[in-house]
Specification:
With 167 residues, this protein is α+β, with helices and mostly antiparallel strands. The protein is built from 7 helices and 4 strands. It has helices at residues 11-20, 31-42, 47-57, 61-70, 90-94, 97-108, 150-164, and strands at 82-87, 121-126, 138-140, 143-145. Strands 2-1-3-4 form a 4-stranded mixed beta sheet, covered by helices on one side. The radius of gyration is 18 Å and the shape is elongated. The termini are far apart. The structure holds FE2/S2 (inorganic) cluster (FES). FE2/S2 (inorganic) cluster is lined by residues 87, 89-92, 128-132, 135, 137.
């Protein structure tokens, strides 16, 4: 039985959440997976998501916000359709991570944590994404690109522009 009368989620996701909270010894253990699924569907963990998730897992909105502020995978504002994450942690830094970040800023015409006016790309400087042996590395949504050069990065961005099909 759901604790939410009027959900903001699709019927499928709401049903999934109803089940999810029963799979753990305590409801709040479902918090992180619930936030990730909600973000995938809504585009961000916005105020409405926070309010409903707090209700579903039985904690305060402030506690949900505290968790969101800790996890870089969770974001309260919508990203671009293609979210470009450039690693500048030590291995990548030594192999041109900051230059790659500057290159992406210049090519996309946006700064760190900004989104292009058409909503296609957003850019974020991130910590290690686990591809240190093949630095410098970039992640676009769930796909990884490594051993990058500015020319290879241009090809990656172009690939996504083509994928969008509108540019
Ligand atoms: S330091 Fe960049 S992927 Fe690990």
């Amino acid at each position: 039985m759901s604790v939410v009368a009027n959900t903001i989620f699709s019927p499928e996701l709401a049903a999934r959440f109803d089940k999810l909270v029963t799979m753990y010894p305590v409801r709040r253990s479902a918090l992180i997976p619930m936030l990730l699924y909600a973000q995938d569907e809504i585009g961000a963990v916005n105020d409405a998501v926070i309010a409903e998730v707090a209700l579903r897992v039985g904690i305060s909105e402030l506690e949900v916000r505290n968790v969101i502020s800790y996890y870089s995978l969770l974001h309260t504002k919508p990203h671009g359709k293609f979210h470009v994450q450039v690693c500048t942690n030590i291995s990548c830094m030594l192999r041109g991570g900051y230059e790659m970040l500057d290159h992406c800023k210049q090519r996309l015409g946006i700064d760190n944590k900004e989104t292009t006016a058409d909503g296609l790309f957003s850019l974020e400087e991130v910590e290690c994404i686990g591809a240190c042996c093949w630095a410098p590395a970039v992640q676009v949504n769930y796909a990884f690109y490594d051993n990058l050069t500015p020319e290879k990065m241009d090809a990656v961005l172009e690939e996504y522009r083509q994928k969008d099909g509108t540019k």
